[in-house]
Write a sequence for this structure.
């Protein structure tokens, strides 16, 4: 088998952790597999480098920040290669440019355009364990780029895709994907399998195990993922196209506290009204999530939508530039809200799922402010103070044993 | 003018120092020059990285150590580019592989084979201040190499050579080359000029301002060097082919405490005797410096030579393998010695220089154990306890005002 393994920054934070990772890699190699390992920078390295840059130039260019930060993965990759070699196994560290991870020139958030396989396959054919610096690539000018948040996950999935790896293991400090955040929700259960789409919804909804970009890429290129823990040796959660083992209607409960609700009451119902509002928000790079529109009094309309709470200021500023809102009766922004969602590929054919969720919330005496649904997801907006109780109540309804 | 400036690790050790270097670079650029800057890793970065590697694998391969350590220059190069940009000047950081610093595959101590000028000249033609990570190159396998001790100096001189720069400034924490170590010798004077050959002799003899490899390369490619301080803005010492300004017979006094004297008394005078001794030492990679041979009693010979004191053990072990020494009367190794040298291109045509040096030592009641001369150098071996007084006495003789 050809396995790609990815280890995040906390997994390689110090010499002891690096040796622990080396032992995991060595086991996979000794079992007869070809192994490519993708690593992030050690622990707080990236944050430390950003702080160094900020001290020298608070407005440093993204090009130079990428040059600075990629040194972090370079260091962790070479250290891990050393650790594996000290166990008597052949290993070589390589950087993004050395294996031809070609990206566009969007410094700080580049997209992978292609990956050369020549060097990688040559090293694997020499039975080397390849340690690849994650998060980094090179653009057409031969300048170094980074892939943005979750970049090392993206590197791992992309490498697995071009090498047609049998499995891409994402090692983190959690041991898999749960039906809800196990630190908060009693009875949260680890899933042995989940589909790409369910994983995408969970990630979007606040489950921080995998970044969406890497899941989307895995889905597109049919890369079998496994989320597992670098601290405990036990099976993790498999992420794949079709899940056969479990027949759960609902795969998980997620919450997102970074939400603000914008309410516009009594806006004139003129043609292109929605377009006028949301194009201004798009230009201000405000991400709008749920949108509800209803007919208000006197033929005017009410519009309610959600944005990220940390974009509240940009939202308010942008709305002031929307001329048709000048005569609106009221514009309110409220970030004392939480979005609670349930996700499951099975629910689209089972209409009773939504009512079961609403019933659980009603029994817990929790008021629902907004509802939005998709094929595999139901989201509700509730007051922030109710969110812990709400997650537990909904989880108990679907996952109580 | 096209100027190459090199700044060592202490010159960029922290944000304040980086800003200080940026100001020096900015002055050169604003004066209308094209500027390429070569930087070392910040302060103790390289030592810290070596310690990290040692913790994980005390026998780490040189290839992986090079991968690890070059991250240091990458970080300092990007930080300096950020500092220069914050002053409103255009700047770009580049790595060894990005400007095609091609080396052999001798990891840890690679030699530069060629440098592409395309990227460098393109950036200069855009009026960018180029910040190049020193010490690093790339071999034919596209693996990263380092240039060994003094590697950033070598990078700077090599870049100056291929770009045919008008001047290569080496900024350090001293402000130039002195007639003797100013921390030890009273009255030591800064030289405004010195020839390559004199600089080479001084470096060999213990003056640690410039590494010999970079001076040799500067001589070969006719690169005008200037050694100057990054802390004080004043003229440094120019190193070039011919010195016109000063007519000093002696350019400097140097001492080397890393010396051991080996005395072999009464070795049989057979053909190839010297060859047999010194070929064994060469095979053991022992560097032999001064060699004296004289006729001893009974037709046997006495041989005295010096080696580096830190190679004493290898020397003794190697001599045990020389069969013709089995019947020698005595073999002694003594590292309680110092080599004291005077250097000056003018002395070859002035035989009085040597006697003036010996007179100074005689007046100070210092015994001379060995003497060796070349066209531009006279070295004597003395007891270590006499060395401070000896350096001062000789310096006073030649440089007293």
């Amino acid at each position: 088998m050809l396995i790609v393994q990815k280890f995040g920054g906390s997994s390689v934070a110090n010499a002891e952790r690096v040796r622990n990772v080396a032992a995991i890699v060595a086991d996979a190699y000794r079992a007869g597999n070809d192994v490519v390992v993708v690593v992030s920078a050690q622990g707080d390295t990236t944050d430390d480098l950003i702080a160094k840059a900020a001290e020298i130039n608070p407005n440093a260019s993204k090009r130079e920040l990428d040059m600075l930060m990629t040194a972090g993965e370079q260091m962790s990759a070479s250290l891990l290669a050393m650790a594996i070699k000290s166990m008597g196994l052949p290993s070589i560290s390589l950087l993004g440019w050395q294996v031809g991870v070609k990206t566009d020139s969007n410094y700080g958030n580049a997209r992978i355009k292609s990956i050369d396989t020549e060097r990688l396959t040559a090293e694997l054919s020499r039975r080397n364990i390849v340690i690849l610096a994650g998060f980094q690539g090179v653009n057409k000018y031969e300048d170094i780029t980074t892939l943005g948040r979750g970049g090392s996950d993206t590197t791992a999935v992309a490498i697995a895709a071009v090498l047609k790896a049998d499995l891409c293991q994402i090692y983190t400090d959690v041991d898999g994907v749960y039906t809800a955040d196990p630190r908060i929700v009693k009875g949260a259960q680890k899933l042995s399998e989940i589909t790409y789409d369910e994983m995408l919804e969970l990630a979007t909804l606040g489950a921080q195990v995998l970044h969406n970009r890497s899941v989307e890429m895995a889905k597109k290129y049919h890369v079998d993922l496994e989320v597992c823990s670098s601290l405990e040796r036990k099976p993790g959660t498999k992420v794949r196209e079709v899940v056969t083992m479990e027949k759960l209607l609902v795969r998980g409960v997620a919450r997102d506290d970074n939400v603000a609700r914008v309410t516009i009451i009594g806006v004139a119902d003129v043609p292109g009204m929605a377009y006028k509002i949301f194009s201004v928000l798009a230009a201000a790079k405000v991400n709008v999530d749920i949108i509800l529109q209803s007919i208000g009094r006197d033929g005017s309309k009410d519009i309610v939508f959600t944005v990220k709470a940390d974009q509240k200021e940009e939202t308010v500023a942008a709305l002031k530039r929307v001329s048709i809102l000048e005569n609106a009766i009221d514009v309110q922004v409220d970030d004392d809200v939480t979005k609670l969602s349930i996700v499951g590929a099975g629910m689209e054919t089972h209409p009773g799922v939504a009512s079961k969720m609403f019933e659980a919330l009603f029994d817990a005496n929790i008021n629902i402010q907004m509802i939005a649904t998709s094929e595999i997801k139901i989201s509700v907006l509730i007051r922030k103070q109710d969110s812990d109780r709400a997650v537990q109540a909904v989880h108990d309804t679907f996952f109580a044993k």
